[in-house]
Amino acid sequence: MHALTNCTIYTGEEVLTNYAVLIENETIVDVVLQEDVPKDVFCFDLQGFDLVPGLVDLQLYGGKNGFFVRDLSEESLTDMVQTHRQDGTVGLVPTLYSTSHERILKAIEVTKSYMAAGKMGVLGLHIEGPFINFTKRGAHSAHAVRVPTKAEIAEIIASCEGLLTIMTIAPEIWPEELLQLLQESDIILSLGHTNATYEQAKGYFNSGIQLATHLYNAMRPFESREPGVVTAIWDTPTVNASIIVDGYHCDYATVRIAKQLMRERLFLISDATLAKIEPMRFEFEDFIANYDGHRLLNDEGKLAGSAITLLDAVRNCIHHVGIPKDEAFRMATMYPAQHLGLGDKFGRIKAGYSADLIVLDSNQMPKSLGTFR
């Protein structure tokens, strides 16, 4: 056993000073007063820095070199894990944008194989499209977006058995029979890339959909006489939504408004197409992303994902949106872990939880990363 001492501990529930975290076998044993640390325990002095649960990212597509939907390899997943771990993401959900049925099945197979081998960092799979609304496809491939068939959905459901899976869909394009089939499965459904009306969205939420993908982006917006999907999300207490806080996908003022309305229902994703890269042009099939050092745009000028890490989003929330530090941490730790059904393992510094923790300075820059054993 060892102890992490001399730090400010963001437990997910409170902020503690003059406390220590006891760890054994990669698991938190207890959080105790520093004076109560057993004398025979080795202590790591964290020099007054912040100790935070590892971050959990439910939507990202690549790392520095790997782009999962292109590579469909365990090496690509390893690159994603290693790239984002540098900024404190200890659990991630690799995401597919709209692609062929064959590539979806291959992605499921590769993800399951990676996780079965006991490799750390990947928590499940997010299938974002292709069963979305063509008019709200954003940078998704125009050739890949489509209405689902029964054969496709049945095979995806069967293939995803035993794998934590999120699927972003536009329910208004789905045949009712197939939507019901999907809702009866274990796949977590998220409303996104949708042109549903307020009334339609409320109906989908009332039928059991509990998540929405990247609030404001690729969905019918708020208008005074046409409330749209955005208002339906605000107006439904059981619905949680992700948001991309990179300064480009939505203005910081709109993030602040959403946070005031939704409180703990709003959580962060990176939406990273690639991360920690130099300016470049990226192409795969008909997906194009031009990175100018700040944002990714396709040749039509549409945003093509982000180039941030989840920790960048946390910093933006603190320094630009004005969200208190402890709450910004929760938006990238506790809340996403809960939405994936892993709230009993990640997102808190508490006895029984993963000791995959991060140490940050006062500007939320990483000082130490990884599992404390």
From TrEMBL:
What protein family is recorded? Belongs to the metallo-dependent hydrolases superfamily. NagA family.
* Binding residues annotated for Zn(2+), in chain numbering: 128, 193, 214
Chain positions recorded as substrate binding sites: 139, 217-218, 225, 249, 303-305
- Classification via Pfam families: Amidohydro_1, NagA_N
Source organism, top-level taxon: Bacteria
- Write the protein's name: N-acetylglucosamine-6-phosphate deacetylase
> Would the keyword Hydrolase turn up in this protein's UniProt record?
yes
Q: What class of enzyme is it?
A: hydrolase
Q: Which residues does UniProt call coiled coil?
A: none
The entry's free-text remark on the cofactor is:
Binds 1 divalent metal cation per subunit.
Which cofactors must be present for this protein to function? a divalent metal cation
Which Gene3D superfamilies does the UniProt entry name for this protein? Metal-dependent hydrolases (3.20.20.140), Urease, subunit C, domain 1 (2.30.40.10)
Native organism is Runella aurantiaca
EC number(s) given by UniProt:
3.5.1.25
BP-aspect Gene Ontology terms: N-acetylglucosamine catabolic process
**Catalytic residues of the enzyme:** 271
UniProt keyword list: Carbohydrate metabolism, Hydrolase, Metal-binding
InterPro entries on file: Amidohydro-rel, GlcNAc_6-P_deAcase, Metal-dep_hydrolase_composite, Metal_Hydrolase
